[in-house]
Amino acid sequence: MTDTSQSYVIPCPPTIALPVAGSEACFPVRRVYCIGRNYAAHAIEMGHDPDREEPFFFQKNPDNLDPTGRFPYPPQSQDVHHEAELAVMLKGGGRDIAVDEALDHVFGYAIALDMTRRDLQGEQKARGRPWEIGKAFEASAPVGPVHPAAATGHLDAGAITLHVNGVLRQEGDLNQMIWKVPEQIAYLSRYYELAPGDVILSGTPAGVGPVERGDVMTVAIAGLGEMRVEVV
């Protein structure tokens, strides 16, 4: 709830907003949910069984989303990995959303990266601790323009690729998701009250790997074009 007459003891944090393709208006971000190990081949390369067990999610912070095209290599890590993902932007929400109604709540889609301090994530896993230190750091989610579903249609199939310095690293298809986008929305709504402005990063195909300062990552998703991100 916003009260424009309310005063505050410190300046209010800015609203995190992303550019929308073909529009001067922006998409405001409320929360960021990320599904883990949602492509079978990626689950296998990370040492896990790809069977269709219940999905699990972790979160990034809204201000981790970064549309600048530059990824600052983070501190306290020597092993930072790329993970190419389809981002899903919600225009509606609620609780206990039915799978067959879930796409009615989608505003659009964007290309995104889930950058990961893999060494720090691994340390936390080994200690049974949360992953946030490896996942939810500054600029850890480079993101492209939001494309309204009214223009693209709903994306349930199509190539997703990532190149580093022109060399193919990740290659898959959106139809290889273990849990499809409507199922992700329905599942999340059982545990959270979803709302307009929520963003879901829908998982990454196999081929994740490290980047170095000076590398250029190019992510492409069929129907959304491509996003170029420089590691600085």
UniProtKB/TrEMBL annotation:
Bilayer-crossing regions: none
GO molecular function terms listed in the Swiss-Prot or TrEMBL record: acetylpyruvate hydrolase activity; metal ion binding
Organism: Roseivivax lentus
PANTHER family the UniProt entry points to: ACYLPYRUVASE, FLUTATHIONE S-TRANSFERASE
Descriptive protein name: Fumarylpyruvate hydrolase
Organism domain of life: Bacteria
InterPro entries in the record: Fumarylacetoacetase-like_C, Fumarylacetoacetase_C_sf
Stretches assigned to the Fumarylacetoacetase-like C-terminal domain: 32-232
Keywords, alphabetical: Hydrolase, Metal-binding, Pyruvate
